[in-house]
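My main concern about presentation is that the manuscript never shows what a single data entry looks like. Each protein is reduced to its one-letter sequence and a matching series of backbone shape codes. For the editor and my fellow referees, an illustration may be useful. For illustration, here is how one protein appears when written out as sequence plus structure tokens:
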Amino acid sequence: MLRRPLAVLLLRLGAVALVYTLLRILFWLLNMGTFPHPPLNAFLSGTRFDLSAIAWTNLPWALLFLIAPRPGRTWARVQYGVFMTVNAVALFFNCVDLEYYKFSMKRSTADLLSILTAGNDTVNLVPAFVRDYWYIVLIYVGCSVLLAWLYRITRPSDDSISSWPRAIAWRVVAIGTLVLASRGGVQLIPLQPLDAARSAGPTYMPLVLNTPFTILMSLGKPTLVERQYMSPEEAAALWPVVHDMRSTAGPVQPWGTAGTFTPISPAPADPNVVVIILESFSALYSAELAGGEGHMPFLDSLMRASLHFTRAYANGRRSIDGIPAILAGIPELMDEAFITSPYAGRPFTSLANVLGAKGYHTSFYHGGRNGTMGFDGFARSAGFQRYVGLNEYPGPASDHDGHWGIRDRPFLQFYAQELNNEPQPFLSTVFTLSSHHPYELPADDAARFAGGTMPIHPTLRYTDDALRRFFDTVRTMPWYANTIFVITADHTADLERNGVHGDKPIDHWIPLVVHAPGRVLPYKHERVTQQIDILSMVLDLAGYDRPFFSFGHSPLRQEDGYAIMASNGIYHIIGDQARLRFDGEQMLDIVPLNGAAGVDRALAADMEQRLKAAIQQFNHHLLHGGMVIEPSAP
């Protein structure tokens, strides 16, 4: 009986389901710090999502098998080739997320395909990935070999079925089973990624899901839909996106006793602005922010001489999300990165086009290959007049790290000299890269900065030292005194999950420093801040006197701060006392933060309404435009 066609079809698809289950267990084991105590239902519920992905990905093979369940030699090879090909692709993405999840903190979606094919970095980094993640390669090969063996031992019998009703019947049963599996059951609406949050809670949603399913569910589908939680006027009041700094009191900063506000020193007309984006600098590794030894001593010392925010959060978990958030005030509130989304072609506000319209010279520097993650294309769309990447770097080939591009020490010195040649006023951004995986340094630097408990720690200290040398250089330059420096990170990475900061949202916790001697007084600001607030804050500090668009808000104003982000369709809002998660229809949970004993119902309701307003504003403006405020006629 087990060799009849229906049984063979189910056994072979069941073999794929077995491999998916093994990979879910491995996913948990490799990410146990994030999922310390998963409920059994996280594994049991995951079977529905596995069967759905398996039914869809194996549809080509299933059709071939339905046509010829007892194939000849050639047809059997074709069926085997199709079966192994579709499952090899699916298993590849499932295996990638075993480790990539630590960086993205979500199951990968279809935009990963665009990221992998943007530029030549993926091909160039394959040797490093294979070396550092050799065990993932072994897991992938092992799963493929197991699947191939299980396929071969489930051969159909050679007996032909003479009864045509029986031949039709088993095919009808097979088709019905595949349809039910692909839908995830008999419910009215087919299975969606958000159903995983309802199965085992939002915390364990990535454990319930599998990567082929999330890619399929996001492939070719509209990235955004209109959300109408409230009237446009209510949304604008709760989460304003049009800002006019002239309509409120000037920027203020809280020093001295609690509740006492002192104005920030007025900026000279048109100050220069330098935005430094540090790769993977987590606040968790700052002694000033998190305590302990720390791995960024210079940045910590700079914080003490600057305005810095103790509760600053990244709006995403990838560089491709961090750059638009920092420079254009656009958060990650959809499954696809803004840079690769269809909405990237819409006009949008950025620091470059706002200040460029005031006569600023604008530039973007990154030591990586031109084309990396579409940064050069984004820079052009954002209005940067000049992009300087690996192609434009004049230094020796020995400055190249062999993976991503020019090491931070030589590139930041090159950048300092380039700034000295910029006509003033200027806005310039530099994005570092040495603290990105594979975390390799030259032998002498590896010895000098050795230590720590994570592979990223020596590279953080190396980049921190490169930043120190950069400031040593630019302090001697004539434009330094008239410059606002904003230093932050694109996202966090490789976090040490030892439970010390278990009541903080460490996955998004980053440094944010404003260094402008003589203009911005040193202060440790505990207001919740996010990357998308940087655009408004810079324009606030620069004395910008026209209305502008931004999804973020200046943290220099006397308003409560919140941070927003999304992952696999789950929206998050972080306040100073709590983090709330929302699936687009209902609140999933709210968790106290920073030692808070509980969450007041009124606060929870207010946070939910603010998050709904932010989602409504975001979706509406990306779908319909209006992300630029045209200057009024004189």
Observations:
- Residues 285 and 294 are 5 Å apart (CA to CA).
- Residues 73-104 form the longest helix (32 residues).
- The two ends are 85 Å apart (CA to CA).
